[in-house]
Design brief:
This protein folds into two domains: 60 residues; 91 residues, Glutaredoxin (3-Layer(aba) Sandwich). With 167 residues, the protein is α+β, with helices and mostly antiparallel strands. The protein binds FE2/S2 (inorganic) cluster. The site of FE2/S2 (inorganic) cluster has 12 residues, from helix 5. This is NAD(P)H-dependent oxidoreductase subunit E.
Amino acid sequence: MEAKDQKILDEILESHSYDQTAVIGIMQDIQKVYRYLPEEMLCYIAKKLHLSEAKVYGVATFYENFSLEPKGKYIIKICDGTACHVRQSTAILDEIRGFLGVTGAKPTTEDMMFTVETVSCLGACGLAPVCTVNDVVHPAMTPEKARALIQELKESPEAGEEANDEN
Ligand code: FES
């Protein structure tokens, strides 16, 4: 791990007073910076918090919001819950995957700009079909609107930066 990364981790650990019971918050902070939880960082915080690596891994894999794989700058979640599914969310997912050249098995673009995921319900069923980009909700989507949204993100990265900051 590079010195600058170690410094970032030390600051995060410090801000949580090296408290074992804050391990979830610590991991959330790490993921905010790196967009996933690199293995070496989990080992590092385990050591610093005097927890076993197995314990830390257990927490990281238990919560589905944590990722052990690198993700793109923009994380697009397509809701496939019942309300969205009956309103044709599959067509939106297919459009986005086709446009970005990603699949369920390979959800992140080569340039690390986009990760496409499905979720079971985003809790906004009245706005179905819904997708989120870095947790910003986009209601009443259609394949055409989804494609336009991604095109916009590709062309004006600063729009996504704002969305990222809200994370
Ligand atoms: S089913 Fe999509 S938001 Fe609930």
